[in-house]
User: Which sequence fits this backbone?
């Protein structure tokens, strides 16, 4: 693994002035989309890779931001890393409805000049992909060499291959699923209820931080594996002994409270609500009576699916379902289940098998 | 061996290689027979090599079943010298002829004269170039002879269309026809489901 870093990276903004209609039937009167790029676009313009972010991610994929924060996938994106910026021109954007600069609940609604808040229209993975395609045109890219993502990001990569088969050559779908299970939706619903039940939700001067923190605590448990939590915290206690109170006693409680609190200071509750709905609504096979193989008929991209053994949020079985649909549709697909103790979060962490699978798959063979 | 298998494979077909290893055979068939190939493999280093060769590969254990593959969805299913390493070869055979319009299966012949001699005169489990493992560490838990395999085919609904008698390095040897079950080192079969 390389320590090479991209150093300071710059955030740019794409402004789309025309109206943009959403699947929900609502329309945005134009939008702004922030993005970052790493590496150089080659002359043939055939080395562009779009990296799609997951629920709480954003456009800052790699390198150092102005406030010195590393991107969320900095371990894997950079010079000589799995996504090698010496070879590829890599683009990361903040999706619509986000809270890191793109048009979202914090933006001003041009119709009444106040922030959207909870009135920001619902978006879908399909809407995102359509907006990302406008960014592609803006950047002058004839097509994406690859579209890649983990979790909700992987769902965008899949949607790309279905919606724009001529505009993407390869997709890498990591730790994702073709749709959410009842259990997945149930977790999302509790997260939403935590936010919606916060007395500060929709208040004019206060933020529903408690609710958002709770939602994140719950989410965080689903990103880790039972083994990883046992290994990291066990039953360790903050003060070494029980003190018969509801204060923080176990290390795991302390960790979760910290995660919840820090997240609620940097993320927007409306965006969180929206993102969980985007996940719940994702079901590309819906347009083909639930037949995923039929849905994939139009796909031309070479596909790599990766899952992690201890992931129970989107388990390897969910990726296998996806692989089977690709096989049934007679598409070019490879699938790899990587042994990892890190649960769903494993998709964020480099490992030898993971990195080299991605590197090899992206390598041009023609 | 690749060339020999290539002779059995139709151009432009869809081929499934069960236990595809490093993907060499599929890469060969892609190049020479213009097939659309898919491999199954569980060894991650070998999967890596498949990806390097631009061979599509699924991380899947044959022993845990092949029910995810549709009936007659491949023009050919290949199982090269690995049926003897499966927990349930008879189930695998039934699955292979269900999935493939044709199947190409090769087996190391345990009734080869060298094996017989080692067992009779040496008194030990045979070790040879085709079967290089000691009895305790061999992955080959269901070894068979040509006769055994052919009976398996009869009993489990597979018609044998073709049989090649080979040395362990995959050379065709016509003298083996004299006494196939005694002389053959590796046998290559082309089979399909009985109508």
Assistant:
């Amino acid at each position: 693994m390389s320590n090479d870093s991209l150093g300071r990276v710059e955030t740019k903004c794409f402004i789309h002035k025309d109206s943009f209609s959403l699947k929900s039937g609502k329309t945005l009167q134009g939008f702004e989309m922030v993005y970052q790029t790493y590496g150089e676009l080659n002359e043939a313009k055939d080395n562009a890779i779009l990296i799609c972010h997951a629920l709480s991610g954003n456009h800052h994929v790699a390198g150092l931001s102005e406030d010195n924060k590393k991107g969320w996938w900095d371990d894997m994106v950079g010079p000589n890393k799995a996504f090698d910026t010496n070879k590829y021109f890599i683009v990361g954007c903040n999706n619509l409805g986000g809270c890191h600069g793109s048009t979202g609940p914090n933006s001003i609604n041009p119709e009444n000049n106040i922030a959207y808040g909870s009135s920001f229209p619902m978006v879908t993975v399909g809407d995102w992909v359509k907006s990302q395609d406008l960014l592609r045109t803006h950047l002058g890219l004839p097509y994406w060499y690859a579209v890649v993502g983990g979790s909700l990001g992987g769902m965008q990569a899949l949607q790309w291959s279905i919606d724009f088969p001529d505009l993407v050559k390869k997709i890498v779908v990591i730790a994702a699923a073709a749709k959410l299970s009842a259990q997945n939706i149930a977790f999302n619903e509790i997260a939403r209820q935590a936010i919606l039940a916060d007395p500060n939700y929709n208040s004019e001067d206060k933020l529903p931080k408690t609710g958002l923190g709770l939602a994140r605590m719950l989410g965080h448990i689903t990103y880790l594996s039972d083994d990883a939590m046992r290994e990291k915290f066990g039953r360790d206690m903050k003060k070494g002994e029980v003190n018969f109170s509801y204060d923080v006693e176990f290390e795991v409680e302390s960790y979760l409270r910290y995660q919840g609190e820090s997240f609620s200071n940097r993320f927007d509750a409306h965006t969180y609500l929206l993102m969980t709905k985007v996940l719940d609504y994702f079901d590309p096979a819906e347009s083909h009576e639930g037949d995923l193989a039929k849905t994939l008929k139009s796909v031309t991209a070479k596909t790599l699916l990766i899952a992690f053994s201890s992931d129970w949020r989107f388990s390897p079985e969910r990726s296998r379902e996806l692989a089977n649909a690709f096989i049934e549709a007679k598409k070019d697909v490879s699938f790899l289940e990587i042994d990892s103790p890190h649960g769903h979060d494993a998709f964020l962490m480099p490992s030898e098998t993971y990195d080299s699978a991605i590197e090899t798959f992206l390598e041009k063979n023609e | 061996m690749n060339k020999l298998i290539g002779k059995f494979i139709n151009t432009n077909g869809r081929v499934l290689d069960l236990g595809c290893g490093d993907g060499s055979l599929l890469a060969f068939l892609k190049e020479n027979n213009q097939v659309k190939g898919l491999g199954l493999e569980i060894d991650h280093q070998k999967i890596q090599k498949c990806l390097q060769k631009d061979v599509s590969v699924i991380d899947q254990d044959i022993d845990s079943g092949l029910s995810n593959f549709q009936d007659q969805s491949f023009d050919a299913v290949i199982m090269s010298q690995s049926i003897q390493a499966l927990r349930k070869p008879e189930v695998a055979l039934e699955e292979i002829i269900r999935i493939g319009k044709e199947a190409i299966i090769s087996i190391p012949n345990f009734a080869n004269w060298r094996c017989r001699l080692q067992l009779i005169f040496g008194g030990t489990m045979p070790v040879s170039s085709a079967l290089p493992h000691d009895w305790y560490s061999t992955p080959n838990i269901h070894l068979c002879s040509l006769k055994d395999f052919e009976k398996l085919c009869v009993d489990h609904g597979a018609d044998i269309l073709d049989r090649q008698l080979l040395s362990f390095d995959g050379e065709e040897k016509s003298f083996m026809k004299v006494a196939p079950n005694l002389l053959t080192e590796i046998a290559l079969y082309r089979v399909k489901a009985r109508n």
